[in-house]
Amino acid sequence: MNLPASFKYILFFVFTFAVCFSSAAQKRRIGDLFNVNKEQNEMLQGKRVILTNQEREWVEIHNGAIRLAPDPAFAPFEFFDEEGNYSGIGADYIALLQDKTGLEFSIVQYKDWNTIVEEAKKGNVDVFGVATPSVEREEYMLFTKPHLTMKAVIVTQSGVSGELTLDDLKGMNVCVVEGYVWQEMLENDYPDIHFDFVSNSVVGLRKVSLGVADAMVVSMSLASYYIDKEVYSNLWIAGEAEYYVEMAIAVRRDWPELLSILNKGLDAISRNEELAIKNKWLFHREVKLLESRQFWLLALYVTSGLLLIALTMWTFNRRLKRIVNEKTAALKKEKEQLRITNDKLLQAVEKASESDRLTKSFLANISHEIRTPMNSIMGFAQLIEIDQATEVERRHYANLMVKGGQQLLTILDNIIDLSKMDSGLTKAWVQKVNVGQLVKETCELMQPIAKKAGLDLHYSIYDSEGLERVKTDPILLQQVINNILTNAIKYTHEGEVSISAKLVGKKVRIEVADTGIGVPKEFNEGIFEPFQQVKHRSVIESGAGLGLAIAKRIMDVINGKIWVEENQPQGSVFIILFPVRLKK
């Protein structure tokens, strides 16, 4: 295939760029391989975390006596430098955490990781700076959220050619640090490998370097650190293992307060601070150009580009066809969207018509409900005006007028409450409520009404301690309970009315059960609408039919629910369900 001269120049430029880029890339650090500038290398000091009173008291008691035991040979994650200072990624994280939380750790030194683990089990070590969570370790330690990752690689002498996998190590003598997370994984998955368990990573790398062992499975960061430092110049990373784990800070199990403080501190560490730590400690070894995986990837990209240029003209017509198809599909989609919009408009018209019908129904109902007590008041007022009425009769008529006025005020108050709730003006005033006590007091207030109706009224409270810690609006809640109890007594002509309260998970459940005439299933939802009463009941009680509607609106305000169920063998059960904690 003959290419234009301009294409050849472009390909030559791309290939040259690939070579230069690949060579430079080998000298990068691998702290997420981001282009971090010099300003990002500085540790950025963040604000201190906010501790609870209990956490502050814990810090005051234990500060300076929190024993942290670093792994002495786990560079670059943690180790002791030549002067005996605690160093590494984990040490920098601990320094940040001390600054952000006010904690002070006491660094203690042991000879190897196994000793540290045994001392932790005895209670002589309080914190691991860097550790991988496991089922066994969780028996005596708590773990923070992960803040570091670790990937396993295979390290051999640099004379070994080709990329190795764990399957290639069968029958070989392979070093693994005893007690590290890799040990359990490798023993379970690769029993054919001859393992040489060493006390720390430095010993294992030294054995591979001297030819005593064939290879070592170790974390990539640790291997890169020692190879880049030229501690073992004859070693190289021969391949990647399939294992990948997350690491965290471990805390003794009886110190959950410290775990909470450390998690807050980790959340307060910024992205720039994390990058600065990783960029400081994580290195990648420099390899020859032809050994570079990136070089061959870029070479593959260049070859793919060449094929792409050759196929450009062939794909041009197909692209035009695809554009036409996309435009056609877009037109169809737009047509479908117009149909959906039209349907929505029709639904809006229907909703407006329904709203108009409901408005007329509301006015008709409210007119009827107000006229009834008003006619009563007017009628008795006219009787009082008659001179023939005795003083006793006048007092009786006046008493009936007062009751009619009270009924009228109740209707107006209910209408105002309902209107405020529908307008979103009613807000919950959240405060601590003893729900059990509230139910008890409401039940006692209703006792005279129940006795007058010849009914037994009793209550049951479960988990009273839990019900003391509820946070909601007590006034709104009591209004709901009053409305439901009043309804239950009104429509129960014999038997009993009971109310109970209990916790169900993170919600409070209140049940009001009666042995009255009940509510047919077809009315279970309608009775919570304004001016709705069950028309086929044997006795229709007086009232505007607003009590249950107001109860339903109140439950919406306090993020709760209310519904009715059948009570066997007769009667109804009204269920009130709302959250234990209502957010303001």
Would you identify the CATH H-level superfamily of the domain at 431-579?
Histidine kinase-like ATPase, C-terminal domain
Strand content: 15-25%
The global form is elongated
CATH architecture descriptor text of the domain at 431-579: 2-Layer Sandwich
Number of strands: 19
Determine the structural class based on helices, strands and strand pairing.
alpha+beta
Q: Segments where pLDDT lies below 50 for 5+ residues?
A: 19-46, 284-288, 535-542
Number of helices: 15
Computed Rg: 39 Å
The CATH class designation of the domain at 431-579 is Alpha Beta
Oligomer: single chain
Biggest sheet overview: 7 strands, mixed
Q: What is the percent of helical residues?
A: 40-55%
Q: Alpha-carbon distance between the termini?
A: 73 Å
Give average pLDDT, whole number: 79
CATH topology of the domain at 431-579: Heat Shock Protein 90
Strands, helices and their partners?
Blueprint: H1 5-25, H2 53-62, E1 66-68, E2 73-74, E3 78-80, E4 86-87, H3 89-101, E5 105-107, H4 113-122, E6 127-131, E7 141-143, E8 148-157, E9 173-177, H5 181-189, E10 194-198, H6 201-210, E11 215-219, H7 220-228, E12 235-252, H8 256-268, H9 271-281, H10 293-385, H11 391-422, E13 431-433, H12 435-452, E14 456-461, H13 464-467, E15 470-472, H14 474-490, E16 496-504, E17 507-514, H15 547-557, E18 561-566, E19 572-579
Parallel strand pairs: 1-5, 9-10, 9-11, 14-16
Antiparallel strand pairs: 2-3, 3-4, 6-12, 7-12, 8-11, 8-12, 13-15, 16-17, 17-19, 18-19
Helix pairs in contact: 1-10, 2-8, 3-8, 10-11, 11-15, 12-14, 14-15
